[in-house]
Amino acid sequence: LMWAVLTASTIGPGSVAMCACAGADYEAKLVWSVVVAALVAWVMQDGAGRLTIVSGRSLGRSIRLLTPHRPRAYMRRALALGLTVSSFAYECNIWAGTADAVRMLTPDEGLRRFVLLTSGPACVILLVSGSTESVSLGLGLATLLLVLLFLAVAILTGLPPGFERGFLPTLPDGSAPVALGVLGTTSPPPNIVLGSALAYGASLGAMREGVAISSALTGLISLLIQVIQYPSDRSDLRRRSNPAEIRAGSKPNSSAPSPGGGYTRARRVQRLRALLPPHPRSSHRRPRRRGRRR
Predict the structure, then answer these.
(1) 150-176 pLDDT, tens per residue?
(2) How does pLDDT run across 197-251, given as a tens digit for each residue?
(3) Which one-letter DSSP state was computed for residue 167?
């Protein structure tokens, strides 16, 4: 389970949002992007692990030894800066996801701020006082729990029609940014450094097996997220996403373009707002006064 920390460090609010968007807007037509991302993650992490085991040095130390002088030293510093900034941005994404998760449980803003303020010190204390094996074991158990939960929902909802055709690479209209988002969030580059750190002191066979299993689990969770975001009744989805049809009580237009043709940005924002709980400040807004203009 120690290598499952690679999966736990990949699956976050960004990957969940992008895979959910791909499944809800483009059905099963972007399943192939998850497969490609899992293969890319496996190749990168396996290569970094083999380099660490064979050379006896971590990936960062090997890069430092190979770039001692200018101009390669500038490239090394640029790489280090990029990894630092991307890791910081990823952690900000995790903090935002934690805040939304707490908001789903309770509308209390004080409790949400308390969780956010104590999460950072709690993580530092856990890393300093606890061992790496115990932290990796806990993250591995959390990853298995995620797999079981998403798998249970996928079994209850069933596979979408034409799911097997999603393994053929296709790009519907407007789906290129979503496909790139799935690739970027399912195979994040900072995981190369993490894979190299985990491989330090491990055997080659254990490393390759652990990286392969973690990459497969990452692809499986992302695939399940896409599957469960595909509704069983698309006409009902179009009706729920069109407030005018709901007010008029009319049936959805059968000639409307399918979600595979790409959703508009406004419709995506409406769907995301419908999933989020109402902001507590929204209930304190003053009602607008209606009257004739002078």
Answers:
(1) 888 888 877 777 788 888 888 888 889
(2) 888 888 888 899 989 998 998 999 888 888 887 654 444 444 344 444 434 444 4
(3) G
Whole-structure pTM value = 0.69
CA dist 120 and 281 (Å) reads: 26
Evaluate whether 28 touches 165 at the Cβ level (below 8 Å). yes
Residue 52 tokens read as 């660490």
SS3 (DSSP) at 39 = helix
Distance CA 183, CA 15 (A): 9
Number of Cβ within 10 Å of residue 151's Cβ equals 15
Instruction: Indicate the average pLDDT of the chain.
Output: 76
In contact, 52 and 199? CB cutoff 8 Å: yes
Record the tokens describing residue 112, joined without a space: 């949400």
Residue 225's CB is within 10 A of a number of other CB atoms, namely 25
Whole-number Å distance between alpha carbons of 46 and 93: 26
